[in-house]
Amino acid sequence: MRKTVSGLYAVTPGLADSALLTSKVEAALRGGAHVVQYRNKTADERLRREQALRIARLCRDVGACFIVNDSIELAREVAADGVHLGKDDDGVSAARALLGPDKLIGVSCYNQLWRARDAVVQGADYIAFGSFFPSPTKPGAVTAGPDLLRAARKFSRPIVAIGGITPDNASGLIEAGADAVAVVAAVFDAHDVERAARRIAGLFAERSES
User: Fold this and answer.
1) CB 3.0 to 4.6 Å from 33: which of 28, 165, 179, 194, for a disulfide?
2) What's the whole-model pTM score?
3) Looking at 31-89, which runs of residues are DSSP E strands?
4) Average pLDDT of the segment spanning 3-19
5) CB contact at 8 A, 126 and 106
């Protein structure tokens, strides 16, 4: 069954210690992460493959959605549920040709609605915007505001908000229309990863109950 993008979207930190990374991802999944994106910009090809395979198994065991950042080839090799593409990566059509019709393709649209429009026309399955708050992962990222999320609803695709998101500031983005919030530091740098993940995942449960 094709997975969906919603709720807590946990983006992995670039750790060389695979055992530590695996334990953190396990904790995030226990805390309610619905999506995990494997992102490591500094590892070599062998380590990236090893780590991606480990996380793919973890996600598969609990039914979570597993996304690979940037590399369409790696996403195919480890049988990920999809790939996430930035402006410097290959496009949606290239990803679709390699991964097939059943895999998810997400696209970073930064703070530009025209990128979202183009991505949807090309067949993207979800669109991501940010940075909404200062981010330690991308300190020089462009900034976006909640009105962008409201405007993006017209594209009828799941919307992911990213950038400096914490349990204390995520609610406003969810209310503005984010179907998922992508988080790195606020989850994986936390002393208690499971608890941090549960706090953010719980915000979506609160929305569905209201």
Assistant:
1) 28
2) 0.95
3) 35-38, 65-69, 82-85
4) 96
5) yes
